[in-house]
Amino acid sequence: MILEVTPPFGVGPVRIGMTLDEAEAALRSVEGYREPEPTGVPTRGTADYDSGMSIGVETSGGLVEAVQVYRPYGDVEVSYQGIDLLRTPARQVIERLGALTELEEDEGGRSYTAPELLLALWRPFVEDENPAEEQGHYFQSVLVARPGYYD
Predict the structure, then answer these.
(1) Which domains does the chain have, with CATH numbers?
(2) What is this structure's pTM?
(3) Contact yes or no for 137/92 (Cβ under 8 A)
(4) 66/55 Cα distance (integer angstroms)
(5) What superkingdom does the record give (predicted)?
């Protein structure tokens, strides 16, 4: 499955500007959706999938202002312009995305933002040499936000 990242509009069927109810319906429509375990803790605006992927939305005024996708471990591609943002080594993502738009590095290379796209990438630490160290070798999340989100 390919989940298209389309900044600043959204990710897959989840669109910036949707109501929370609409966003939750869109989250349920993504292939591999898993019903949440009954914990008694509200989990509005988040969803988990068979691939290990999670998606969450941030709302303001009842409308989605950002969508964040957390790295899948199964056969899911989270793609922007043909770049698999979460399964391609981070160094290659930076090179390829940087050829398309300006990138701002933060946190010593753990985080990159493409301000013109309203797209951000994050990993907990940098490990560009050892692919076995997945959490530092690959980005662990991608966020797409509404215009003005970073102001």
Answers:
(1) 2-145 (2.60.460)
(2) 0.91
(3) no
(4) 11
(5) Bacteria
